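User: Hey, my collaborator sent me this sequence without any context and asked if I could get a structure. I don't really work with proteins. Can you help?
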Amino acid sequence: VKPAVINMSVPRVLVVEDESLVALDICKSLKRFGYEPIGPVSSAEAAIATAKRITKSGNKRKNRRTTNGA
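Assistant: No problem. I've predicted the 3D structure and written it out in structure-token form, which is a compact way to encode the shape of the chain:
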């Protein structure tokens, strides 16, 4: 799994779907409508872990901006 580059100005959606073709179709549709799909992941456990990882990295970015005066 490669690390994702996160664009903070684009709304992100965590895609949780156990059917791979459906998940890919959802991701494709989200991109077409201007969203950044995260995932897809196929289980609740993977979704929770992904959400925690994304939230943790988002908080680090937010803290850096605050401490740098931005």
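In plain terms: The mean pLDDT is 83. You can pass these tokens on to your collaborator as they are.
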